[in-house]
Design a protein that fits this description.
The protein is an alpha/beta fold. The protein has twelve helices and twelve strands. A ten-stranded mixed β-sheet has the order 1-2-3-4-7-8-9-10-11-12, covered by helices on one side. A two-stranded antiparallel sheet has the order 5-6.
């Protein structure tokens, strides 16, 4: 059974015409789903009851469903989303002050296989379709509404499971849907795409007029270290990735963030702090330092808090804006891919 989220407007109009409904009802259905967050046809009270009942017999609102919500003591909530083929992806809600950030996935698993990341441990299973990306936002918005408290999603980050620029077409289509003023209506400044540094995708994103924020998962300032922990670096190299980030900033006028997961004894030396500062200097760039969130079975740990501060101070001393991300959701396996991995292994057992 097809889902409303997966149907473009003309296709939905055809479905409604087959039920004897006028074309304008299709826009009403889409507004109910994307703008108002209706999860069932029964909630679409601006439609006649017979039409709601007919729609419920021929369509679904969404193709996926929330299988579980895991909540952390710090307010973070991880949604485990069950796809129609039985696969799972994750989305994470992070409340912080007046902001509520949602991290969504773009692939089931990940082909990049960063050696410290749970998402890539089992490789790529399949890319998500555009509506499966968008549905994570709808599910998260509904969870917030059911929680009460008046929170709404203020910021969206495509940095859950997967590499969005290796699933470019679906990601770009999802971005258009997310920004559609007749739908979810998120402003470009509220959306950040995180990439490991797919140079062609970064250039294409700017050229095609997606003026969203860009976060580049750099994680090391030199090729030997970065290729060791981010194997895809062998294709591009640090210098090409950094230059592509600079081009993106020039083309879009958006600031770029270099994401940098700190791994004790791997990428946290004073010399590496200096080289990172060299890459970030001279353009509108922020360095986001992320103390490692440990993954079971992987041989990495986070530096001590004082080591993190020394590293941050060394980069700031070169005039670079540095933020140190607070670790969130340790008690609910909030690092990308951890919950899916644990759930899949438990099911296998």
């Amino acid at each position: 059974m097809a889902a409303v989220t997966a149907l473009p407007l003309p296709a939905l109009e055809e479905r409604l015409a087959a039920l004897g409904a006028p074309a304008f009802r299709a826009r009403q259905v889409r507004r109910a789903v994307f703008r108002r967050g209706a999860g069932t046809f029964a909630e679409m009270t601006d439609l006649p009851v017979p039409l709601r009942e007919a729609l419920a017999g021929t369509l679904r609102v969404a193709s996926s469903a929330v299988e579980a919500v895991h909540r952390s003591r710090d307010g973070t909530a991880k949604l485990l989303v069950l796809l129609e083929d039985g696969r799972r992806v994750e989305a994470v809600l992070i409340p912080e002050g007046r902001r509520t950030t949602l991290c969504v996935s773009t692939e089931v698993g990940c082909p990049v296989r960063c050696t410290f990341c749970a998402s890539g441990l089992e490789g790529l299973v399949r890319p998500l379709r555009s509506h499966e990306i968008v549905e994570q936002v709808l599910h998260a918005r509904r969870v917030l509404a059911e929680d009460g408290g008046g929170r709404a999603i203020t910021n969206l980050v495509l940095m859950g499971m997967g590499e969005p620029l290796l699933n470019y077409e679906a990601t770009a289509e999802a971005l258009r849907a997310l920004r559609d003023r007749d739908g979810i209506g998120l402003g470009a400044r509220r959306i950040t795409l995180s990439t490991v540094g797919i140079v062609e995708g970064m250039d294409r994103l700017a050229a095609e007029g997606h003026p969203i924020n860009l976060a580049v998962s750099l994680h090391a300032p030199d090729d030997p270290t970065r290729t060791r922990i981010v194997p895809l670096n062998a294709r591009y190299g640090v210098e090409r990735v950094v230059e592509a980030a600079r081009r993106y900033a020039r083309a879009t006028g958006r600031d770029v963030t270099f994401e940098y997961v700190l791994l004790a004894g791997v990428n946290d030396s004073p010399a590496q702090a200096g080289r990172l500062a060299d890459h970030a200097a001279g353009f509108h760039c922020t360095v986001n330092l992320i103390p490692y969130n440990a993954v079971e079975g992987l041989p990495y740990g986070a530096p001590a808090p004082e080591a993190v501060e020394r590293f941050a101070a060394a980069v700031r001393a070169r005039g670079v804006v540095v933020k140190v991300r607070t670790r969130r959701g340790d008690d609910i396996a909030a690092a990308c891919g951890q919950l899916r991995l644990k759930t899949g292994r438990a099911a296998a057992r």
